[in-house]
Amino acid sequence: KNEVEQSPQNLTAQEGEFITINCSYSVGISALHWLQQHPGGGIVSLFMLSSGKKKHGRLIATINIQEKHSSLHITASHPRDSAVYICAATNSGSARQLTFGSGTQLTVLP
Amino acid sequence: GAVVSQHPSRVICKSGTSVKIECRSLDFQATTMFWYRQFPKQSLMLMATSNEGSKATYEQGVEKDKFLINHASLTLSTLTVTSAHPEDSSFYICSALWAGTYGYTFGSGTRLTVV
Question: What is the pLDDT of residues B34-53, one digit of tens each?
Protein backbone atom coordinates (compact mmCIF):
# COMPACT_ATOMS: atom_id res chain seq x y z
CA LYS A 1 0.00 0.00 0.00
CA ASN A 2 1.37 3.36 -1.04
CA GLU A 3 2.02 5.72 1.84
CA VAL A 4 0.23 8.50 -0.06
CA GLU A 5 -2.97 7.62 -1.86
CA GLN A 6 -4.83 9.91 -4.21
CA SER A 7 -8.25 9.73 -5.76
CA PRO A 8 -9.61 9.83 -8.30
CA GLN A 9 -6.94 8.74 -10.75
CA ASN A 10 -8.71 10.45 -13.63
CA LEU A 11 -11.30 13.19 -13.55
CA THR A 12 -13.17 14.85 -16.39
CA ALA A 13 -15.30 17.90 -15.70
CA GLN A 14 -17.23 20.52 -17.60
CA GLU A 15 -16.02 24.09 -17.46
CA GLY A 16 -17.38 25.82 -14.40
CA GLU A 17 -17.74 22.73 -12.25
CA PHE A 18 -16.43 22.49 -8.70
CA ILE A 19 -13.66 19.90 -8.47
CA THR A 20 -12.32 17.97 -5.50
CA ILE A 21 -9.24 15.77 -5.43
CA ASN A 22 -8.55 13.73 -2.32
CA CYS A 23 -5.34 12.58 -0.68
CA SER A 24 -4.82 10.23 2.25
CA TYR A 25 -1.52 9.45 3.87
CA SER A 26 -0.40 6.85 6.35
CA VAL A 27 2.91 8.25 7.52
CA GLY A 28 3.83 10.97 9.96
CA ILE A 29 4.34 14.13 7.99
CA SER A 30 5.83 17.53 8.47
CA ALA A 31 3.96 19.06 5.56
CA LEU A 32 1.58 18.15 2.75
CA HIS A 33 2.09 19.54 -0.72
CA TRP A 34 -0.15 19.91 -3.72
CA LEU A 35 1.68 20.08 -7.03
CA GLN A 36 0.51 20.73 -10.56
CA GLN A 37 2.22 19.12 -13.55
CA HIS A 38 1.38 20.39 -17.01
CA PRO A 39 1.68 18.29 -20.19
CA GLY A 40 5.15 19.69 -20.87
CA GLY A 41 6.29 18.15 -17.61
CA GLY A 42 7.10 21.18 -15.51
CA ILE A 43 5.87 21.05 -11.93
CA VAL A 44 4.50 23.95 -9.95
CA SER A 45 4.07 23.88 -6.21
CA LEU A 46 0.52 25.02 -5.46
CA PHE A 47 0.32 24.66 -1.70
CA MET A 48 2.33 23.55 1.26
CA LEU A 49 0.29 23.06 4.39
CA SER A 50 0.59 21.45 7.76
CA SER A 51 -2.79 22.41 9.20
CA GLY A 52 -6.08 24.03 8.34
CA LYS A 53 -6.81 25.56 4.99
CA LYS A 54 -5.14 27.70 2.35
CA LYS A 55 -6.64 29.56 -0.57
CA HIS A 56 -5.06 30.96 -3.69
CA GLY A 57 -7.39 32.32 -6.31
CA ARG A 58 -9.78 29.56 -7.32
CA LEU A 59 -7.76 26.90 -5.54
CA ILE A 60 -8.36 25.79 -1.97
CA ALA A 61 -6.41 23.17 -0.05
CA THR A 62 -7.44 21.70 3.27
CA ILE A 63 -5.84 19.21 5.61
CA ASN A 64 -7.17 17.22 8.54
CA ILE A 65 -4.20 16.04 10.58
CA GLN A 66 -6.23 13.70 12.79
CA GLU A 67 -7.77 11.92 9.82
CA LYS A 68 -4.56 12.14 7.74
CA HIS A 69 -6.50 13.49 4.81
CA SER A 70 -6.16 16.45 2.50
CA SER A 71 -8.29 17.80 -0.31
CA LEU A 72 -7.64 20.13 -3.21
CA HIS A 73 -10.65 22.04 -4.49
CA ILE A 74 -10.93 24.02 -7.71
CA THR A 75 -13.85 26.39 -8.01
CA ALA A 76 -15.25 27.54 -11.37
CA SER A 77 -12.95 25.14 -13.24
CA HIS A 78 -11.52 26.18 -16.58
CA PRO A 79 -9.90 24.19 -19.42
CA ARG A 80 -6.55 25.74 -18.50
CA ASP A 81 -6.80 23.88 -15.16
CA SER A 82 -6.32 20.64 -17.09
CA ALA A 83 -3.16 19.05 -15.70
CA VAL A 84 -1.97 16.30 -13.39
CA TYR A 85 -2.38 17.20 -9.74
CA ILE A 86 -0.03 15.46 -7.34
CA CYS A 87 -0.27 15.16 -3.60
CA ALA A 88 3.07 14.76 -1.83
CA ALA A 89 4.05 14.44 1.80
CA THR A 90 7.26 15.53 3.49
CA ASN A 91 8.12 12.84 5.99
CA SER A 92 8.79 13.64 9.62
CA GLY A 93 12.39 12.54 9.37
CA SER A 94 15.36 14.72 8.71
CA ALA A 95 15.77 13.79 5.05
CA ARG A 96 12.80 15.95 4.05
CA GLN A 97 12.12 13.77 1.07
CA LEU A 98 8.79 13.89 -0.66
CA THR A 99 6.55 10.85 -0.92
CA PHE A 100 4.29 11.23 -3.92
CA GLY A 101 0.77 10.14 -4.64
CA SER A 102 0.10 8.64 -8.04
CA GLY A 103 -1.45 11.83 -9.38
CA THR A 104 -4.86 12.81 -10.67
CA GLN A 105 -5.25 13.59 -14.36
CA LEU A 106 -7.80 16.39 -14.58
CA THR A 107 -9.40 17.31 -17.88
CA VAL A 108 -11.76 20.26 -17.98
CA LEU A 109 -13.86 20.41 -21.10
CA PRO A 110 -15.05 23.72 -22.57
CA GLY B 1 9.31 33.75 -5.90
CA ALA B 2 11.87 30.99 -5.80
CA VAL B 3 12.89 29.82 -9.26
CA VAL B 4 14.92 26.81 -10.33
CA SER B 5 16.25 26.94 -13.85
CA GLN B 6 16.83 23.53 -15.44
CA HIS B 7 18.72 23.03 -18.70
CA PRO B 8 18.48 21.63 -21.24
CA SER B 9 14.74 21.14 -21.52
CA ARG B 10 15.13 18.56 -24.23
CA VAL B 11 18.15 16.59 -25.42
CA ILE B 12 18.70 13.82 -27.92
CA CYS B 13 22.00 12.00 -27.70
CA LYS B 14 23.65 8.98 -29.20
CA SER B 15 24.04 5.78 -27.25
CA GLY B 16 27.31 5.72 -25.37
CA THR B 17 27.65 9.46 -24.92
CA SER B 18 27.23 11.42 -21.69
CA VAL B 19 24.69 14.12 -21.01
CA LYS B 20 24.83 16.79 -18.31
CA ILE B 21 21.69 18.33 -16.88
CA GLU B 22 21.96 21.50 -14.80
CA CYS B 23 19.68 22.86 -12.14
CA ARG B 24 20.34 26.35 -10.88
CA SER B 25 18.48 28.15 -8.10
CA LEU B 26 18.19 31.74 -9.26
CA ASP B 27 17.16 33.71 -6.21
CA PHE B 28 17.65 31.50 -3.19
CA GLN B 29 20.13 29.10 -1.69
CA ALA B 30 19.36 25.45 -2.23
CA THR B 31 21.13 23.49 0.46
CA THR B 32 19.44 20.31 -0.71
CA MET B 33 18.58 19.27 -4.24
CA PHE B 34 16.56 16.22 -5.22
CA TRP B 35 16.80 14.51 -8.58
CA TYR B 36 13.84 12.56 -9.94
CA ARG B 37 13.08 10.41 -12.92
CA GLN B 38 9.62 10.03 -14.37
CA PHE B 39 8.37 7.50 -16.88
CA PRO B 40 5.24 8.21 -18.94
CA LYS B 41 2.02 8.13 -16.91
CA GLN B 42 3.94 7.37 -13.73
CA SER B 43 4.78 9.31 -10.64
CA LEU B 44 8.12 10.86 -9.84
CA MET B 45 10.80 8.45 -8.68
CA LEU B 46 13.50 9.84 -6.43
CA MET B 47 16.96 9.03 -7.73
CA ALA B 48 19.19 10.84 -5.29
CA THR B 49 19.45 13.59 -2.74
CA SER B 50 22.36 15.96 -2.88
CA ASN B 51 23.55 18.38 -0.25
CA GLU B 52 25.89 21.21 -1.08
CA GLY B 53 29.50 20.25 -0.61
CA SER B 54 28.92 16.58 0.16
CA LYS B 55 28.39 13.36 -1.75
CA ALA B 56 24.92 12.59 -3.01
CA THR B 57 22.80 9.92 -1.37
CA TYR B 58 21.42 7.55 -3.98
CA GLU B 59 18.21 5.57 -3.72
CA GLN B 60 18.34 1.82 -3.89
CA GLY B 61 18.74 0.57 -7.44
CA VAL B 62 20.18 3.82 -8.81
CA GLU B 63 23.72 3.40 -10.08
CA LYS B 64 25.88 6.19 -8.70
CA ASP B 65 28.57 5.64 -11.34
CA LYS B 66 26.02 6.04 -14.10
CA PHE B 67 24.16 9.02 -12.68
CA LEU B 68 26.81 11.40 -11.41
CA ILE B 69 25.53 14.18 -9.22
CA ASN B 70 27.53 17.22 -8.26
CA HIS B 71 26.31 19.93 -5.92
CA ALA B 72 29.36 22.14 -5.70
CA SER B 73 27.59 25.35 -4.75
CA LEU B 74 24.41 26.52 -3.05
CA THR B 75 22.96 27.51 -6.41
CA LEU B 76 24.01 24.76 -8.80
CA SER B 77 23.53 21.01 -8.97
CA THR B 78 24.24 18.85 -11.98
CA LEU B 79 23.22 15.35 -13.02
CA THR B 80 25.39 13.63 -15.61
CA VAL B 81 24.05 10.53 -17.31
CA THR B 82 27.19 8.68 -18.34
CA SER B 83 27.40 6.25 -21.24
CA ALA B 84 23.72 6.73 -21.95
CA HIS B 85 21.63 3.90 -23.34
CA PRO B 86 18.14 3.93 -24.81
CA GLU B 87 16.71 2.63 -21.53
CA ASP B 88 17.93 5.85 -19.88
CA SER B 89 15.47 7.80 -22.03
CA SER B 90 13.15 9.46 -19.58
CA PHE B 91 12.05 12.74 -18.05
CA TYR B 92 14.45 14.02 -15.41
CA ILE B 93 13.49 16.78 -13.01
CA CYS B 94 15.14 18.41 -10.04
CA SER B 95 13.68 20.11 -7.02
CA ALA B 96 15.39 22.39 -4.55
CA LEU B 97 14.56 22.59 -0.89
CA TRP B 98 14.49 26.08 0.50
CA ALA B 99 16.98 26.36 3.33
CA GLY B 100 15.32 26.05 6.74
CA THR B 101 11.87 25.24 5.43
CA TYR B 102 9.85 22.43 3.89
CA GLY B 103 9.22 24.40 0.71
CA TYR B 104 10.26 22.96 -2.63
CA THR B 105 10.71 24.49 -6.05
CA PHE B 106 10.91 22.28 -9.11
CA GLY B 107 12.89 22.72 -12.28
CA SER B 108 11.07 22.56 -15.61
CA GLY B 109 12.46 19.11 -16.38
CA THR B 110 14.65 17.59 -19.07
CA ARG B 111 13.34 15.11 -21.59
CA LEU B 112 16.23 12.85 -22.53
CA THR B 113 16.06 10.65 -25.61
CA VAL B 114 18.94 8.28 -26.27
CA VAL B 115 19.08 6.92 -29.82
Answer: 999 999 888 899 999 998 88
